[in-house]
Design brief:
This protein is an alpha/beta fold and 324 residues long. 48% of the residues lie in helices and 17% in strands. The protein has two domains: 7-53; 64-315, 2-enoyl-CoA Hydratase, Chain A, domain 1. The protein has helices at residues 10-24, 30-51, 56-63, 71-78, 125-131, 138-153, 171-175, 178-191, 206-210, 231-238, 245-252, 256-261, 280-298, 303-315; strands spanning 80-85, 97-107, 110-119, 158-164, 196-205, 217-221, 225-227, 267-269. Helix 9 (206-210) links the parallel strand 5 and strand 6 (217-221). Helix 1 packs antiparallel against helix 2, helix 3 crosses helix 11 and helix 4 packs across helix 13. The termini are far apart. The model has no long low-confidence stretch (mean pLDDT 93).
């Protein structure tokens, strides 16, 4: 797949094209070499200038980038012996969420078994139709809960990868209890007697993300977003105009930096300059390190203490002061 550039990245794309054209011209000339060096320098400077000053709306676009790594990319690169489980034992298998068990190396001579939940998107239209664009149905949340309860039974930590624009809003999903399924997960995850690590790898949209997002550690990739509503949805409600979504994105405080400062998330996982898709192996390595570090710490905490800390963590969110 050829590299895909977002609208604000077009100046970078133009410089890249000029460099590639000169390199592919076949002309070996000192002037050409100097031109390439000069353009390469401008290219690196422009990348640094643009990517180190990203607005909230630009980060939303990077979080939705079609070449960004998805849950499956992380699962098969970080874990070994992955076994997928299907179905919720009530209705059917929801393919928008991948659930199963795997192993992860946390020390040189120590592997542990863990449960994995990952919201999955597709690269192409055909894949997205299979994965429902990463939007879970009630049966998806019930499947995730079934795996979490098994993890609790067999004393396995849970790792969830969050990447969804929101829970599926269709009539069928509502008829089968979408709101109840999400609410049930919130309750059960709050009380689950095993460590839970939640990682927002792309979009963290509304209750669709929250339904697998309660845990002891909430981590976010640097250019991911996590929000009570999509910027477009917020603009439609507040401004009666979805085209004002960029303004809404700034107001929502949905970036990893915003949420870390507000003490809602626990850690920001760094991405390569320009986004996770620019260097997928490095991004995966960063995520793996964060998972290993957090799991290694959490598995040493007694279960009752773990639940107390989890309760305290969520009770502290939203504190504010008033002044006379």
């Amino acid at each position: 797949m050829s590299e895909y550039y977002l609208e604000f990245e077009k100046p970078i794309e133009e410089l890249k094209k000029q460099i590639d054209e000169l390199k592919s011209s076949g002309v070996v000339d000192e002037n050409i070499k100097l031109q390439i060096e000069d353009l390469q320098k401008k290219y690196e400077e422009l990348k640094k200038e643009i990517y180190t000053k990203l607005s909230s709306s630009q980060k939303v676009l990077i979080a939705r980038h079609p070449q960004r790594p998805y849950s499956k990319d992380y699962i098969f690169a970080i874990f070994t012996n992955f076994v997928e489980l299907h179905g919720d034992r009530f209705f059917k298998d929801d393919k928008s969420v991948i659930c199963g068990f795997a192993e992860i190396q946390i020390k040189e001579n120590k592997k542990i078994s863990i449960a994995i939940i990952g919201q999955q998107k597709g690269r192409y239209l055909e894949e997205n139709l299979i994965y429902n664009f990463g939007m879970m149905h009630p049966e998806g949340y019930r499947k995730a809960l079934r795996i979490m309860k098994l993890a609790e039974k067999f004393n396995m930590p849970v790792v969830s990868f969050i990447d969804t624009p929101g829970a599926y809003p269709g009539i069928g999903a509502e008829e089968r209890g979408q709101a109840e399924a999400i609410a049930k997960n919130l309750q059960e995850m709050a009380e689950l007697k095993t460590p839970i690590i939640c990682i927002v790898i792309g979009e963290g949209g509304s209750g669709g993300a929250l339904g697998i997002g309660i845990g002891d550690r909430l981590l976010m990739l640097e250019n991911a977003y996590y929000s009570v509503i999509s910027p477009e949805g917020c603009a439609s409600i507040l401004f009666r105009d979805a085209s004002k979504w960029q303004q809404a994105a700034e107001a929502l405080k949905l970036t990893a930096k915003d949420l870390y400062e507000l003490k809602i998330i626990d850690e920001i996982i760094p991405e390569p300059l320009g986004g996770a898709h620019k260097d997928i192996p490095q991004t995966i390595e960063n995520v793996k390190k964060s998972i290993v570090d957090n799991i290694s710490e959490l598995i040493e905490i007694p279960k009752e203490e773990l639940l107390k800390r989890r309760y305290k963590k969520y009770r502290q969110i939203g504190k504010f002061k008033t002044s006379k």
